[in-house]
Amino acid sequence: MSTILLGCIVGFIAWFLVRYLAAGFYTVNQNERAVKTRFGRAERVGDATTGQDPIAEALNAEEKERYNYPQVRVIPPGGPYFKWPWEKVYKISIATQTMNMATDPENSDANYQGTMLEAVTKDQLNTGLKG
What we know:
Largest sheet: 3 strands, antiparallel
Shape: flat
Mean pLDDT: 86
Distance between the termini: 79 Å
Low-confidence stretches: none
Strand order of the largest sheet: 3-2-7
Number of domains: 2
Structural class: alpha+beta
Oligomer: single chain
């Protein structure tokens, strides 16, 4: 009976180690940034706020008050990083995507097969934009 109980305990410990410790490793891709939360609260950068950021110098007093938020720690690309089971990682893509504005997905013949975008000027003349 004691070997069964010992086997259950060892099995539970092995399951815990595999489930939570080995699965707690993560990486952040080159085109991503991540923020880690602990019980729903993002990791803060000390007492720093967005009002202390150099970009806030251009804001007026009302805007400084309205946009005054704590700064959070952003996880850069790389890894492996580790998180505990009660922590969650939110990854955000920062990749720049380009598209052809002249392409119409519903009608491939529109806009001269996606090569020119028609526009109307201020004096109501039609013109074609290529780029």
